[in-house]
UniProtKB/TrEMBL annotation, chain A:
Protein name per the record: Tubulin delta chain
Keyword Cell division included in the entry's annotation: no
Organism: Larimichthys crocea (Large yellow croaker)
Tubulin/FtsZ GTPase domain boundaries: 40-240
GO annotation (BP), single: cell projection organization
């Protein structure tokens, strides 16, 4: 029923804060009692005074961001973080994965485990754990990986979802590719599913769909929170027998991440528009679903500029190519519909076997959740969480750039200083090349 | 929140340091309206209640009682330090933070490094340790000194190696003032090259600054304000050379130049002290900008140099600020980074600037800036929401760029000119502990550093192929 979120590093804490804001506002929008109750139960616990306290643990190696998140949440008046649910140190991880993973992680393991344990014990029933972090820095990536490892040890049968934010391609941090490679390689063995948002993509959504002129990280984070919220808010699933599903993470993982080589999930949502325009727009399910399907197969995350030329080809003709813009083959998809007339929506087009890899039947590969409650002010909205080749090219770019840098051994001394060897780097590269190869061959 | 300790050595180091403390107080007074001793203040100052008999430091959150700088002041002659102690900043330092002698180092690196280095070793370590103990979490030592003299150069580098020995985990960021070609100290090439070796081996990052560049910047600003053109009036307090609003009275001759270096230090630490949407801590600077341990010379450039008083000038200023950061007029050494090879670059932005402005400008400027093949997107960015005094936004760029090579080559040439003739060598060799091998080793270290930069430069024009990827069995 309840999801405990662990927010790690600056990004994890900033995005996590926006997520709780979105789900709280959506739940309290006062439409259906069952939905509100389910949503609040999932993300918050209620104190005796009726306050909503987020089921979250905030972790960072320096205090500024956590302090900011906690005070902003308290100011909102609608919800807050627990007073003792956070852990910070004085000095950050210096953008160094090795510093996070080898030094800070182990040093503070007991404290963090204790905080998570407390949150878990407050849940009547635990649906799973979600760790939110970025891969570019030192704390989110390094400490985040270590914490995921610890949680996996302590809760071996709990579902663990990692939400990752991938940085802008053009440098936020120079060693971001090293940090990304090390994180992804390790998480692949630990996590049940890895859901990814890329800053570049979300930035484009902000500028072209939402028409924001001066895009700030707050704007980017709010879009990510909206998309995540549309996935995690209560929904009726095939297995939930007419009530809101009590096992959202479990059902997500079992629908999508059915093979250990394939764990990368991407998210597309429609519609996305400036909030001022929502009231003046009307949507139809056929229109929304047609666009969303094409967004999926042409691998665009926006409903503008969709390439309608991309068409599914017969299985035997498909080539796997990293360079040519080609059809995005899916392993599995989860379609989530929220809003008015949701029962009348026709989703047959998503079950087309041509969308999927040949070794899974489209009945098993396609999953559908519905909720009659409109989400976040949109009268009708649809989200697809996809285990597909969508992240293949970005992943390949990251690994390619990291490999080039590794070839010249630049910055390696900074990692070796804290306990990571060149062997560890090579192992991580090998794991990720394997993942890239598996996804390339999906047809 | 972390703390930093400033160690100022020699006449130049102390004069620059003095300007730094003045401007730091001005900046915090500007931002901290409630008079509370907050985390930002504690990064450079202790709060001491002098009424209590043991003058113990007060923790964060209380009212400001008495601010003491986290600093150690070292000079082998008393003039400069005495002036500081008689000036308006005297309350900021207490006697336990000072180390002085009477006779000076005679512009002799060996006297500073060997003679005074050994004589005062215990005392120096003691004072450093005291300063470190006052810190909750010490992150960084800032060493300020000049390279051309005797104390700053010799004793300063001795202090640097002591810092490495006693506090190996604390980052060492060194601001070194390099002598210009027309320097009036004849032996400055010797002193500089001997000090360079120490910097290459013991510092985490070095921010080289050349006097001549500072002079050029000062002249540029003076020219602007005296040109009398309409719309060219500079807003008060906003010029990077201005010390107005600080404690000190009328400006002394080198103040303008020293203010620039003081501003450099303020801006580097701004993201660690104040909040922002993309924080950049001091340990992140070394991590991202130093790809190979010895190549840690980061060329600083500061913009804007001043803000015009005319408010009707549109926001084209923001993009102009980014362009200026890469022009050779704004660099603090005589170098042209645009025409050399970038290994890495950090942009630390302060004020009301969003990530989209940052990205737009990086995209715009990237094509004209040559980056090394394995670091094509070698940008490290930081956004701090608090602007500096007098400006609405500012940018500090730190470039790890092969444009330092000409500076080092020139230095080596000047050294060789003297060394060939063995001019003035006896002054050094007379000092106990000093041998000729120091000279040859120092110049060798410099040569190999230049060679490393050469090696990277050679890759500049060539299109380097991508490294072949690991093959995976299908």
């Amino acid at each position: 029923m309840s999801v405990v979120t662990v927010q790690l590093g600056q990004c994890g804490n900033q995005v996590g804060h926006e997520l709780f804001d979105v789900v709280c506002a959506d739940a309290q929008d006062g439409q259906r009692k069952a939905y509100s109750t389910a949503s609040c139960e999932r993300f918050f616990h209620q104190t005796t005074h009726g306050d909503l306290v987020a089921r979250a643990v905030l972790v960072d190696m320096e205090p500024k961001v956590i302090n900011q998140s906690i005070s902003r949440a308290a100011k909102s008046g609608r919800w807050r973080y627990g007073e003792t649910s956070h852990f910070s140190q004085k000095q950050g991880s210096g953008n160094n994965w090795a510093n996070g993973y080898c030094v800070h992680g182990p040093r503070h393991r007991d404290m963090v485990e204790e905080l998570v344990r407390r949150e878990v014990e407050r849940c009547d029933r635990l649906a799973g754990l979600m760790a939110m972090m970025s891969v570019a820095g030192g704390t989110g990536s390094g400490v985040g990986t270590y914490v995921t490892q610890c949680l996996r040890d302590i809760y071996p049968s709990t579902f663990i979802l990692n939400h990752l934010t991938w940085p802008y391609g053009t440098g936020e941090v120079i060693v971001q590719n090293y940090n990304s490679v090390l994180t992804l390689a390790h998480l692949y063995k630990l996590s049940d599913a890895i859901m990814v948002h890329e800053n570049d993509t979300v930035h484009r959504i902000c500028s072209q769909l939402l028409n924001i002129k001066h895009i700030s990280f707050g704007d980017v984070n709010r879009v990510i929170a909206h998309q995540l919220g549309s996935v995690l808010q209560p929904a009726l699933t095939a297995d939930s027998h007419g009530v809101y599903s009590r096992n959202p993470l479990g059902e997500l993982v079992s629908s999508l991440a059915c093979h250990p080589e394939y764990k990368l999930l991407s998210v597309s949502t429609i519609p996305q528009m400036p909030s001022a325009s929502i009231a003046y727009s009307t949507f139809s399910w056929p229109g929304l679903l047609k666009h969303l399907r094409q967004m999926l197969i042409s691998n665009t995350k926006m409903e503008e500029g969709i390439d309608w030329q991309v068409r599914p080809t017969a299985g035997s003709e498909r080539t796997s190519s990293l360079t040519a813009p080609s059809f995005n083959t899916s392993l599995a998809n989860l379609l989530i519909l929220r809003g008015k007339d949701v029962y009348s929506a026709e989703t047959g087009a998503f079950e087309d076997p041509a969308l999927y890899t040949s070794w899974l039947s489209s009945q098993e590969a396609f999953n559908l959740w519905k909720s009659p409650v409109p989400f976040n002010k949109y009268e009708k909205s649809a989200t697809v969480v996809s285990n597909s080749q969508a992240l293949l090219r970005p992943l390949d770019n990251i690994v390619g750039k990291a490999w080039n840098m590794f070839a010249s051994r630049a910055y390696i001394h900074q990692y070796v200083k804290f306990g990571i060897s060149e062997e560890d780097f090579l192992d991580s590269f090998t794991s990720l090349e394997q993942v890239i190869s598996s996804y390339s061959q999906l047809c | 929140m972390t703390q930093s300790v400033v160690v100022q050595v020699g006449q130049c180091g102390n004069q620059v340091g003095c300007r730094f403390w003045d401007l730091a107080l001005r900046e915090h007074a500007h931002v901290n309206k409630k008079g509370l001793y907050d985390e930002a203040l504690s990064s450079f100052f202790r709060n001491v209640d002098t009424r209590k008999s043991d003058s113990r430091a007060c923790g964060v959150g209380g009212r400001i009682q008495h601010l003491k700088a986290r600093a150690v002041l070292v000079d082998m002659e008393e003039g400069v330090v005495n002036e500081i102690l008689q000036g308006p900043l005297r309350e900021v330092f207490d006697s336990t933070q000072l180390l002085t002698d009477v006779s000076g180092s005679g512009n002799n690196w060996a006297v500073g490094h060997m003679t005074y280095g050994s004589a005062y070793r215990e005392q120096i370590v003691d004072k450093l340790r005291k300063a470190a103990e006052h810190c909750d979490c010490l992150q960084c030592f800032f060493l300020i000194h000049s390279m051309g003299g005797g104390t700053g150069s010799g004793l300063g580098t001795r202090v640097l190696s002591l810092l490495e020995e006693e506090f190996p985990e604390v980052c060492r960021i060194v601001t070194s003032i390099y002598p210009s070609a027309e320097d009036d100290v004849i032996t400055s090439p010797y002193n500089s090259v001997l000090a360079m070796r120490e910097l290459t081996e013991h510092a985490d990052c070095v921010l080289p600054v050349e006097n001549q560049s500072l002079v050029d910047i000062v002249n540029k600003i003076k020219q602007m304000s005296h040109s009398g053109k309409p719309g060219s009036v500079i807003k008060r307090d906003s010029a990077i050379i201005s010390g107005r609003g600080g404690l000190s009275g009328p400006e002394k001759p080198f103040d303008a130049m020293n203010n620039i270096v003081a501003n450099l230090l303020l801006n580097i630490t701004s993201s660690a002290r104040f909040e922002g949407s993309l924080n950049m801590d001091l340990n992140e600077i070394a991590m991202n900008l130093v790809p190979f341990p010895r190549l840690h010379y980061l060329v600083p450039s500061l913009t804007p140099l001043y803000t015009l008083a005319d408010v009707s000038v549109p926001t084209r200023r923001l993009d102009q600020m980014f362009s200026d950061a890469f022009s050779k007029d704004h660099q603090l050494i005589r170098a042209d980074p645009k025409h050399s090879l970038y290994l890495a670059c950090a942009l630390m932005v302060r004020g009301n600037v969003q990530v989209s402005d940052l990205r737009r400008n990086i995209e715009r400027l990237k094509p004209s800036l040559p980056f090394v093949s394995w670091n094509q997107e070698g940008w490290k960015t930081g956004l701090c929401s608090v602007p500096p005094v007098g400006h609405s936004h500012s940018l500090l760029a730190l470039a790890n760029n092969t444009c330092v090579k000409p500076t080092f080559m020139e230095l080596k040439e000047r050294f060789t000119k003297l060394y060939r003739k063995k001019a003035h060598l006896h002054h050094y060799l007379h000092v106990e502990g000093m041998e000729q091998s120091f000279f040859s080793e120092a110049v060798d270290s410099l040569s190999s550093l230049i060679e490393e930069y050469n090696h990277l430069d050679a890759t500049k024009r060539r299109l380097m192929p991508d490294a072949p990827r690991l093959p995976i069995a299908r």
